[in-house]
Amino acid sequence: MTGILVLAGTPIGDVSDAPPRLAQELASADVVAAEDTRRLRRLTQALGVQPTGRVVSYFEGNESARTPELVEALVGGARVLLVTDAGMPSVSDPGYRLVAAAVERDVRVTAVPGPSAVLTALALSGLPVDRFCFEGFPPRKAGERLARLREVADERRTLVYFEAPHRLDDTLAAMAEVFGSDRRAAVCRELTKTYEEVRRGGLGELAVWAAEGVRGEITVVVEGAPERGPEALDAAELVRRVRVREEAGERRKEAIAAVASAAGVPKREVFDAVVAAKHAPGEG
To answer: pTM value?
Structure first.
């Protein structure tokens, strides 16, 4: 019989948030794969549990090489527990490769649900939570970051991002440039920890605040794009939306079709606006 892969959520700050099953799994797993074995040791000490199985590291640097080894253990009948430094494995953390490889070999995969910075920040933000999308970490390079943000400039759902504290001010400034400085957002810092802070305001205002320096683990929640009826989209706005999509890598034909669909207008109207803008004085 094949074994089972268990993805276990770990506390994102307060160790008392650990689910009771986590201690049970840590004590009984044949193999515990941890993003950081030193952090795992501190966690097990806090929980008063001693793993009886083999403990191995499983992080970004060795994820590709170690996955086959863990899959073979699973196929051989082992119970493998995967934990990351904080939150749920595979959500901007190691885990996806192992899950995909296990599924391919018909190995059962289950989870011990635990804390999530994404959901915690979303709930605390004060922004709409009925529909949202998780965008992970924005690209580090300025040009790539702007291009990625432009891809979701018209996204109506609430957006959730992770960001490093030393890049937060640049990222918020880029968001203000692409989404608008008045777009509402919340910067959630050190969630569930002693110095937890949720800063709410417009993106422009938050960018100025972050320029003074921010520390800790950061999750950013951004309000989705406002609804606009067809009557609000003049030719210039239609052209702007097409250009945003083209800059993000879409071909013009697909960009025109997407903009027309979202605006509720005929594709010909968008096409004519783009052609007219191209031949306008000063345009190339």
So the answer is: 0.77
